UniProtKB/TrEMBL annotation:
Chain's role: Essential for thiamine biosynthesis. Bifunctional enzyme that catalyzes the phosphorylation of hydroxymethylpyrimidine phosphate (HMP-P) to HMP-PP and condenses 4-methyl-5-(beta-hydroxyethyl)thiazole monophosphate (THZ-P) and 2-methyl-4-amino-5-hydroxymethyl pyrimidine pyrophosphate (HMP-PP) to form thiamine monophosphate (TMP).
Cellular location(s): Plastid, Chloroplast
Catalytic activity: 4-methyl-5-(2-phosphooxyethyl)-thiazole + 4-amino-2-methyl-5-(diphosphooxymethyl)pyrimidine + H(+) = thiamine phosphate + diphosphate; 2-[(2R,5Z)-2-carboxy-4-methylthiazol-5(2H)-ylidene]ethyl phosphate + 4-amino-2-methyl-5-(diphosphooxymethyl)pyrimidine + 2 H(+) = thiamine phosphate + CO2 + diphosphate; 2-(2-carboxy-4-methylthiazol-5-yl)ethyl phosphate + 4-amino-2-methyl-5-(diphosphooxymethyl)pyrimidine + 2 H(+) = thiamine phosphate + CO2 + diphosphate; 4-amino-5-hydroxymethyl-2-methylpyrimidine + ATP = 4-amino-2-methyl-5-(phosphooxymethyl)pyrimidine + ADP + H(+)
Highest rank taxon of the organism: Eukaryota
Biological source species: Daucus carota subsp. sativus
Gene Ontology, cellular component aspect: chloroplast
The protein, known as: Thiamine phosphate synthase
Keyword terms, alphabetized: ATP-binding, Chloroplast, Kinase, Magnesium, Metal-binding, Multifunctional enzyme, Nucleotide-binding, Plastid, Thiamine biosynthesis, Transferase, Transit peptide
Amino acid sequence: MLNQFVSFPEPGQMQALAMYDTNVSAATSESIKERMPHVLSVAGSDSGAGAGIQADLKTCAARGVYCSTVITAVTAQNTVGVQGVNIVPEKFVSEQLKSVLSDMNVTVVKTGMLPTVGIVKVLNDSLKQFPVQALVVDPVMVSTSGDVLAGPSILDILREQLLPMADIVTPNLKEASALLGGIKLQTISDMRSAAKSIHDMGPRNVLVKGGDLPASSDAVDIFFDGVEFCELRSLRIQTQNSHGTGCSLASCIAAELAKGSQMLQAVRVAKHYVETALDYSKDIHIGNGLQGPLDHLCKLKRNVHSSSRLQRFNPDDLLLYAVTDSKMNNKWGRSIAAAVKAAIEGGATIIQLREKDTETNNFLEAAKNCLEVCRLHGVPMLINDRIDIALACDADGVHVGQSDMPAHVARSLLGPQKIIGVSCKTPEQAHQAWVDGADYIGSGGVYSTNTKANNSTIGLDGLKTVCLASKLPVVAIGGIGLSNVRSVVELGPENLKGVAVVSALFDRECIATEARKLHTLVSETLKTTSAAS
Ligand SMILES: Cc1ncc(COP(=O)(O)OP(=O)(O)O)c(N)n1
Ligand SMILES: Cc1nc(C(=O)O)sc1CCOP(=O)(O)O
Ligand SMILES: [Mg+2]
């Protein structure tokens, strides 16, 4: 059933096409539509969402492949075990199969829990009526918790009808043993013999998974394509969060085949995917039982972190905006994180890392350290210019200027939750920033400065013009310090929310002391100015 696969574009390439080529011809968009890799998962629903249909959906999403679903059974399941199983009538399984297969250009079918002979029969019939490019069979029989999901009654039809249609079958040791009439599988040599015997039942390829092999420090799987064996080894990851690994492995194989990979390559990618997800999720806690789920998309921990800042952007955070400078920190012998910590202790309300001559790897390392400090104090941290660094450390946002990454591109890369600031010297630039989805404007240079070479000044008048032209909150920048900050804040537009400073904090002996003085002056002046207006 596995045909010669053409090479499909990677998901990132498709996204790039969709985002930037507004002149995509009808013919091109038609070919993208036709070649969209698509896996249909025919499996049971797991209410705990670690395994089954839910694992398949998440795995395919993680691999950039569309996944549709035909549900064969609904299980009441959690991290403790399976509390109930409700089998979907075979007629309705057949109806779901017809709905998807007759309409949706499915590339690969992946099967999981097939609880009755009748359901296997309707699946076979549907596949004959609507052939697909590949069939991946995960012969699910027992859950990770040891509960039976498909009894021995389905073994005959699996062996006689489904396996001969399969491009690959992926039993674990218990399932391989059941398919072979209950023989004991205890060694790698036993696994090889099992792979060969199962191959004799008709599937093009067999992957016997050795995760449960006793006394093995590696996780060893045996792949057999009818001619050659391949021993696939990965580190055995110590974790209880392994619920759903079998489903995820099989659906990742299906996803890779749908994208056009050769079989052994698809298996290798899938094994690496599961290993990475296991390692990433080894210390997460979901549920109270012994069988925790994988974090298929490797994003949950990041969100636990980010949720410490509940509000996305508060314009009042612009009050005392501290912008770092590596030259100044070097001069005073301070690390970026130490400087940031001192600024926050003195009252800085938002931080921007502006590291013009720090190497990328050092910048990323420092950004991660600074982010820890900022999160601890609930202060947002932005990155100057470098969207890549902001993405890599999951910063709260970026600040970009007129010659940096355009704000609308930054927004599409960072998503709606991140803060984006844009430097504007004119009302036109301010209008564009608003159109592009910026959250605030940095406007200057209000005064001349030694910190930024060749920076043109707009003065207090220029600042006021920008403020009055925009709906966005504005922070003033350039040459601002204790001696002139009052004149800036007294300008009075309602949306002028604060001042951004570099040298007035970071080119001083005691950052915290200077921050404290500036914070007091700015907040008192803002109060009296707004009371007067
Ligand atoms: C708050 C704030 N406002 C303006 C700037 C200047 O940004 P940009 O014009 O991109 O210049 P560089 O800082 O990149 O030299 C800023 N960084 N922060
Ligand atoms: C980074 C930056 N941007 C400016 C602009 O006018 O957009 S002025 C500036 C430097 C501000 O440093 P200091 O507070 O030491 O004057
Ligand atoms: Mg810039």
